[in-house]
Amino acid sequence: MEAERFERIRERFSRIYERNPALKKLPLEVWETALADARLVPLAGVEENLFRLRRDFRGFPEGTVLGEEILVPGFPHIPRIFRLTSGVPRYFAGPFFAEEKIEGYNVRLFTVGGEILAVTRRGFVCPFATDRWPDFLPRLPEFFEEHPNLAVCCEVAGPGNPFVGEWPSYVKEDVRFFVFDLLRFPEGRFLPPEEKYALFEAYQFPAPEISGPFEPGDLSPLLELLRRYEAEGREGVVLKGASGSPYLKYVTPISNLEDLRVVFPYLGEVPPEYLTHRLVRYVLSRWELFGDFGPEEERALAGRVFRGLAEFLERISEGEPVSETFRVRFRTERAFRALLAHFRHAQVKVEVLSEERKRGYLEVTFRKIYPRATAFWRNKLEGFSVVD
């Protein structure tokens, strides 16, 4: 039966290969090895014959989506610098822009078979963003009619998102979409900043705050921008060369503390280096932007990271699982059911707490339960020993 299923999948991909010239950089036999290794898998949740790459493969990045008429590359990982005053001159020879780095989750929007899809970094269809984009990008169909070979790269952010527990403090309810890049496919090339900014304005796309251009030889204005972002609790910046490259990211000290606060209850679900990386980032960015580590900073570090942990430990010691509650709005019930199917596929345990029609939306409250984090804390609270 398994052999029959693989043969059907292979035949589906063969039809794509015959019709898509961008795939012929590699022989069909090479792509079939990716199918056999499950690096390349059918894309669930769509009617079109589409596939996604689960891992990088022969120059094609993880999250790439393939079809008979499209090849949308996965979104690349942006290098991080830890010190602006040495990192910027090392990588930038000319002017660059600073775009606010938004705390949310990344999707690429594109059109295929007459439908606009939103896919995540890993190449999954995002039922939530696919459902909600009309609320925030009403001119998107017009944009794709005129620019069919561009993918719109967005950050979905706000307390009403179904995936992440952090968001910008100025998004008070629901979510917002922030368009930050336009990706030309199949080449996988980003439009240069000023070209994409003109398109953002022409189609009324909401975007992150954009500052610059800056010069590598005078970083005082950029440092002041980051100090303001720190005071306002913003995540940081993505620096983008005026010519279109390079891209670099840098985050504020406070965003690292917020990461630590949010993740601490979920230890067991994240690798240990998650904590050490953020502590290193905090120390270096705090020193660069402010120069000191007085008692006030020590209190802020402890107060922010450990806030609420006593109550959390009480709940776990009383037998509650580690969980996270989300309140999300959908335009259609179909999108909500598709999101639940996505969670099942990803083996995420979800309990639906309420569903209510309100103000034209289906408003849903659900909680995600984290078994590994529950076991991590419960074993320690119940007195089990470990060898370390």
UniProtKB/TrEMBL annotation:
Protein name: RNA ligase
One Pfam family linked to the record: Lig_C
Record-annotated RNA ligase domain positions: 95-251
SUPFAM superfamilies in the record: DNA ligase/mRNA capping enzyme, catalytic domain
UniProt organism field: Thermosulfurimonas marina
Domain RNA ligase Pab1020 C-terminal positions: 262-383
Keyword annotations of the record: Ligase
Keyword Kinase: no
GO MF annotations, alphabetized: ligase activity
Gene3D superfamilies in alphabetical order: 3.30.1490.70, 3.30.70.2160, DNA ligase/mRNA capping enzyme
